[in-house]
Amino acid sequence: MNYPSATNYSQGYGLTTQAMKWFWDQYLSKVEDQEDPYAVPVKANSLRGVAPAILIAAEFDPLTDDVKNYYQKLIKDSVPAIYKEFAGQIHGFFNLSGVTDDAESLYSEIAKEINAVLGRRN
Fold it and tell me: What is the pLDDT of residues 62-118, one digit of tens each?
């Protein structure tokens, strides 16, 4: 959590950086596990051969830079990946159907990208 989005959007946007640190500690309570590439894929020497990925980020999310970093590693390791960032949105906006139009368009975007990954046309 040492990157700009974790600092700039640490509170006031739903998910907090403090909460993420708590979740992280619950997920990987042993410090040595934090270097395990099976638990933290970005720590892998290479991600070559993993499945294609669609990464969705929100502008006002403490995890946005984490998503970008993972996307960059996928691309560097020649893994087909798509990155979409939704301006003006917060973490969890996927669950805001009926509240924000971006949540509605996100569902369509995901379906479109899955079809693209599978080589299908809409």
Answer: 999 999 999 999 999 999 999 999 999 999 988 888 888 888 888 888 898 888 878
Which two tokens mark 16? Answer: 């907090």
The pair of structure tokens assigned to 119 is 């080589």
Our measurement of the distance from residue 112's CA atom to the centroid of its chain's CA atoms, rounded to an integer in Å, reads 18
Looking at residue 63, which CATH number applies to its domain? 3.40.50.1820
CB 62 within 8 A of CB 5: yes
SS3 state at 67? helix
Give φ, ψ of 103 to 5 degrees.
-65, -40
**Considering its fold, how many domains does the chain have in total?**
1
How many beta carbons lie within 10 A of that of residue 16, not counting itself? 16
Q: For residue 83, give its domain range.
A: 4-117
| Token representation of residue 55 | 């990464």
Task: Please tell me whether the overall predicted TM-score, pTM, comes out greater than 0.70 for this model.
Answer: yes
